[in-house]
Design brief:
Layout: E1 2-6, H1 11-22, E2 26-33, H2 51-64, E3 68-72, H3 74-90, H4 97-116, E4 121-123, E5 129-133, E6 136-140, H5 158-161, E7 164-165, H6 173-182, H7 204-212, E8 217-220, E9 226-230, E10 257-262, E11 267-271, E12 277-288, E13 298-302, E14 310-317, E15 320-330, E16 337-342, E17 345-356
Parallel strand pairs: 1-2, 1-4, 2-3, 4-7, 8-11
Antiparallel strand pairs: 5-6, 8-9, 10-11, 12-15, 12-17, 13-14, 13-16, 14-15, 16-17
Helix pairs in contact: 1-6, 3-4
Organism: Nostocoides vanveenii
EC number: 2.8.1.13
InterPro entries: MnmA-like, MnmA-like_C, MnmA-like_central, MnmA-like_central_sf, Rossmann-like_a/b/a_fold
């Protein structure tokens, strides 16, 4: 096959590209330029998509002896990821930009361009597995549970999975680094990227403040009493405890968490930990990459990239989804994605719009 290997400049994508060559594919390395002003991005950082990363990717491609190109997707990234991120926070929701980048950039823009140029598939360094079976290609969790990225890939369709390779899904991170060292890759010990790539200093609240400006409002308790103020609801997310800016001397000694955000009234509601648990999740824009579960099928859901899976019953109606769990899940925010699993297999994902606590929940034994 003719394969585009997405090369970020990190160790994972380098080893993934090398393995595709070993498997006999005709491989071309591609680095995605995602910033309109790459020179403003930091170097030697724990983010990604920097000028340094582009140079690292090129040097690895040279060592592998494959063609290497930089594809400029900065405008698409700005619109589909950065602008979406800002708009979601402005509306009082909590988006996942890495998930959106996988959906809109790496497996829509990248794959579409690759196919248009005559390539057969794309390969990335994601930690997930694609298992081929009678029903087609199925997305599964990676062997390395600590690095598993199936959650952020839950937005992919069956057609996209059929044209994707994840060569690292059966390997641990430690083994990938060892392999990179054996291959002589100078980036074998390069740190992983954790930060949001378009917020170089890691200050999300400051970034949003510059984009949206001050939007002062009130912090209230669950009885509606004003207990503080803020400069914008975009600085908060459901379940947040630190950085709320409250005078603890006025509290009763119990920690307070963000339990509600209303961007229209510019109100942030705080409460005690017992108010955070929900066991009913409503979501929209469902994307199925596997068979949707039936109304009585036991499955599991996950609401964070490295969160716990929870046993659930999932009800579907068109593009809408309702998931009900036996155990309460804490800190679930509108805007997040809920990903549905059948064991290790990803069935699909949807965007959370609201949550509820509809009944008393059982002990933690309900967690899978």
């Amino acid at each position: 096959m003719r394969v585009v290997a997405a090369m970020s400049g990190g160790v994972d994508s380098a080893v993934a590209a090398a393995r595709m060559i070993d498997a006999g594919h005709d491989v071309v390395g591609v680095h995605l330029a995602l910033s309109r002003s790459a020179a403003t991005l930091r170097e030697s950082a724990r983010g990604c998509c920097t000028l340094e990363d582009a140079g690292d990717a090129r040097r690895v491609a040279d060592r592998l002896g494959i063609p290497f190109y930089v594809w400029d997707l900065a405008d698409r990234f700005q619109h589909d990821v950065v602008d979406d991120f800002v708009a979601e926070y402005a509306a009082g929701r909590t988006p996942n930009p890495c998930l959106r980048c996988n959906e809109k950039i790496k497996f829509s823009a990248l794959l579409d361009k690759a196919l248009a140029l005559g390539f057969d598939a794309v390969a990335t360094g994601h930690y997930a597995r694609i298992v081929d079976g009678p029903g087609g290609s199925a997305l599964h969790r990676a062997v390395d549970a600590a690095k598993d990225q199936s959650y952020v890939l839950g937005v992919l369709t069956s057609d996209q999975l059929a044209r994707a390779f994840f060569p690292l899904g059966d390997t641990t991170k430690a083994q990938v680094r060892e392999e990179a060292a054996r291959r002589g890759f100078f980036i074998a010990k390069k740190p992983d990227s954790y930060d949001i790539c378009f917020i170089p200093d890691g200050d999300t609240r400051g970034f949003l403040g510059k984009k949206l400006g001050a939007r002062p409002g009130s912090i209230v308790d669950t009885d509606g009493r004003v207990v503080g103020g803020h400069e914008g609801t975009f600085g908060f997310t459901i379940g947040q405890r630190k950085g709320i800016g409250l005078d603890r001397g006025t509290m009763d000694g119990q920690p307070r968490y963000v339990v509600g955000i209303d961007a229209e009234t510019k109100t942030v509601t705080i409460g005690t930990a017992d108010l955070l648990g929900v066991n009913e999740i409503h979501a929209i824009r469902t994307i199925w990459c596997g068979p949707p579960p039936g109304p009585h099928d036991r499955c599991s859901i996950q609401v964070r990239a490295h969160g716990e899976p929870y046993a659930a019953l999932v009800e579907t109606a068109g593009e809408d989804l309702i998931a009900r769990t036996e155990e309460a899940i804490r800190g679930v925010a509108p805007g997040q994605s809920v990903v549905v699993y059948d064991g290790d297999r990803v069935l699909g994902s949807a965007t959370i719009t609201r949550t509820a606590r509809t009944r008393k929940t059982s002990p933690a034994s309900a967690r899978l």
